[in-house]
Design brief:
With about 180 residues, the protein is of the alpha+beta class. It has one domain: CAP (Pathogenesis-related Protein p14a, 3-Layer(aba) Sandwich). The chain has six helices and six strands. The strands form two sheets. Strands 1-3-4-2 form a four-stranded mixed beta sheet, with helices on both faces. A two-stranded antiparallel sheet has the order 5-6. It starts with 13 loop residues before the first helix and ends in a 6-residue tail after the last strand.
Amino acid sequence: MAPESSGTTCDLDHREFQLAALLLGGKQQRVSMACRPELQAFARRRALDMARRGYLAHRTPEGKGPNQLLRDTGYPLPPSYLGGLSNNIESIVGGVESPHAVWRALVDSRSHRPHLLGEGPVFQEQDEFGIAYVRDIYSPHVDYWVIVITRRARPDDQQLLCTPQPAECFRTAANDPD
């Protein structure tokens, strides 16, 4: 796979393009992935927010996680991707300028590697991505990277039903009338 850079996909700068090439090459286990402008815009807003407000975390200072933040933009995530603080879609790095160094750090991370390389059935289904790099010399980490990889909800996705606290969750078929 090679990163697309036409007007119908993402407008990646040279660093973002290098990281996209690393994401799509080598040990990638997904059959295909495409950069989507709405995911790149979301990743860029996330990186800018972290740089402007001086934090590096999947959760915003207001307590929202990436799944919920992306849903709030109207992107239809699968129902099994919980909201609140949950994260099935985002990998972040701060304080590193080189795309190669970012890639090495993320692939060496046990929690980020499956997401980035599509290891396992849930991550292998993710087929859309966005990458953003923001540099702000006045922010604590200076360099901020956000990689979003996900898939759109489908009509046949299982629904997730949860009871009140203490919560127990159950999966049901999307077309199950009960």
